[in-house]
Amino acid sequence: MSDIATLVTPEMEQQRDVWVDEKVSEPVSESDIRKWAIATYWPETPPRLFWDREHAKKTRWAGIVAPEDFNPFAWPIRMTPVQPSGAIPGQKPEPGGNVLNGGQVDTFGVRMRPGDVITTRTRLSNWEERQGRNGLTLYTYLETEWRNQDDELVKRRISTIIRY
């Protein structure tokens, strides 16, 4: 067991509930939706809702919509540098330097449509500490939300990062 009292840093305390990393997508196009659906369903034919205008008009969406897993940020002009995993910046690698992906949970709101412009942002929403078999363990929860130009929630993702 670890003698350290907490893995929570003052920086984490300051960053809690502060939205960061805001990005705005290019307008979603029918072509983007069609290509995503083809790639997702390959080698099968994707559902007509994603590529057939006449069929899509007759559905409850009254037009083409994107698959829920569609990512309007998948084709960036500038790449964001990959952040190395490991210790929290400014903190010694041990304890807390071991990092695991604890998974993610997505909740979907309105469907994306051609012409939508999506804004994404992320915040450190919560954390909890507990003793584990490897000592003090910190579970950190990052919340990412996507909203359309009408400020409607498109998707919320809660990602869990585990440090010990």
Low-confidence stretches: none
**Biggest β-sheet description:** 5 strands, antiparallel
Number of strands: 5
Structural class: alpha+beta
Provide a count of the helices: 3
Distance between the termini: 11 Å
Topology:
Layout: H1 10-15, E1 20-24, H2 30-41, H3 53-57, E2 99-108, E3 119-132, E4 135-147, E5 153-163
Antiparallel strand pairs: 1-3, 2-5, 3-4, 4-5
What characteristics describe this protein?
164 residues, alpha+beta, Thiol Ester Dehydrase, Chain A, 5-stranded antiparallel beta sheet, 3 helices, 5 strands, elongated
Structure, explained:
With 164 residues, the protein is α+β, with helices and mostly antiparallel strands. The chain folds into two domains: 94 residues, Thiol Ester Dehydrase, Chain A (Roll), CATH 3.10.129; 43 residues, no CATH class. 14% of the residues lie in helices and 32% in strands. It is built from three helices and five strands; from the N terminus they run H-E-H-H-E-E-E-E. It is elongated and about 65 Å long. The protein starts with 9 loop residues before the first helix and ends with a strand.
Summary?
The protein is α+β, with helices and mostly antiparallel strands and 164 residues long. It has three helices and five strands.
